[in-house]
């Protein structure tokens, strides 16, 4: 197995790692319910995407009642 002839300096290493930082997610506002959602995805709260219903979402009342029954 060969050994690198020159060691990578600390500044080179840090420069290479400068792109590893986490990027801030860009959020959009749902046109139907006003919740913050990721862009180009359907709203998990109301099920709408670009003004059309694309997901059938259970009502929030039924979800709350299930949580109360568990506890």
TrEMBL record:
The keyword Ribosomal protein applies. Keywords: Ribonucleoprotein, Ribosomal protein. Pfam families: Ribosomal_L32p. The keyword Ribosomal protein applies. InterPro entries: Ribosomal_bL32, Ribosomal_bL32_bact, Ribosomal_zn-bd. SUPFAM superfamilies: Zn-binding ribosomal proteins. One of its GO terms (cellular component) is large ribosomal subunit. GO terms for molecular function: structural constituent of ribosome. GO terms for biological process: translation. Belongs to the bacterial ribosomal protein bL32 family. This is Large ribosomal subunit protein bL32. It comes from Candidatus Falkowbacteria bacterium CG10_big_fil_rev_8_21_14_0_10_43_11.
